């Protein structure tokens, strides 16, 4: 593995027993491996599931029988239990930890995103291990990551990580679900995440997790498109983290693409679009092939309602999304400007709708 900064995402199934009870033995094995890597000079960030499972165990509630508020209550109880267990295990290794609880809104807001990055940088510089989880006690659909695989990939972006490791209860990506297909074979290396590969990914077979192989592929795509090497591997593989770092064949390795700048990685994957602008063929070609700004001259239609400074999708006439950007005008003002453009026909100067510094192209030909 190149570089020394790694985000390790641990799923609920990796730290629980078959019935959903938190496993001290599994947690001890993982923390010992992480401690060994830290002593070797690695900078690690742990994204750990398990708060809800810990809370359900303490409260004696069944996962299948709880409401959303009860799940959030279980997370509130379990988060303290989980971080307390990590505190005890890492203290035995003479490693200080810190807890970060995030929602999607924290990542979407550029200022908060930068503050998170600065906090993580400070902790790592002081030799402190950040442990991140979603703030399930307040998360609703609008600010919910949905799964800790996505959270792991976005934390890797925030931290400028060299690698993302997703540990789970299966030892990599398979051609089909190995629990149902005896002919399924593990794919050891992936150079590109194609639609066919996504279709191949089956649903989760874990009884305690929220993310299946499809969410892991989506997370791997975010990370690799941002230049971050990614691995999916089994937490039960002996010394799995050491094997990954030392380049031993384990799990599935996803090769990174050219790294986007920090701001453009955030724009591409950290923001939630609030609308879209449709551009003509000439503007689409110029944006994909070059690095120019989007001018009003190339805009054909505005969809959705948004304010100045919002993130919007950039689409071709056929609906294909080619990029994202931060608009200089609200949807109301843009529609007025488009009406004016129709009346005036020719203009000597067209305003910039999205500046090239606040624009990222997402189609294959335009990866930067």
What is the rounded distance between the termini?
23 Å
Largest sheet: 8 strands, mixed
Helix % is: 25-40%
What general form does the structure show?
A: elongated
Helix count from the secondary structure assignment: 12
Tell me how many strands there are: 17
- Measured by DSSP, the beta-strand proportion falls in 15-25%
Determine Rg (CA atoms, Å): 22 Å
Across the major sheet, the strand order is 3-4-2-1-5-9-10-8
Mean pLDDT: 87
| Uncertain ranges | 203-210
User: Structural class given helices, strands, pairing?
Assistant: alpha/beta
3D architecture notes:
Helix content is 38%, strand content 20%. By secondary structure, it is α/β, with parallel strands linked by helices. The strands form four sheets. The chain has an eight-stranded mixed sheet, with helices on both faces. Strands 13-11-14-15-17 form a five-stranded mixed sheet. It has a two-stranded antiparallel sheet with strand order 6-7. Strand 14 (311-315) and strand 15 (321-326) form a beta hairpin. Helix 2 packs across helix 3. The protein starts with a strand and ends in a 7-residue tail after the last strand. Mean pLDDT is 87; it is low at 203-210.
Sequence-ordered SSE layout with sheet pairings:
Layout: E1 5-10, H1 24-39, E2 43-48, H2 51-59, H3 68-91, E3 97-102, H4 104-108, H5 110-125, E4 129-134, H6 148-159, E5 163-168, E6 173-174, E7 186-187, E8 189-190, H7 195-200, H8 213-225, E9 229-234, H9 240-245, E10 252-254, H10 262-270, E11 276-279, H11 281-289, E12 294-295, E13 299-303, E14 311-315, E15 321-326, H12 331-344, E16 352-354, E17 359-361
Parallel strand pairs: 1-2, 1-5, 2-4, 3-4, 5-9, 8-10, 11-14
Antiparallel strand pairs: 6-7, 9-10, 11-13, 12-16, 14-15, 15-17
Helix pairs in contact: 1-3, 2-3, 6-8
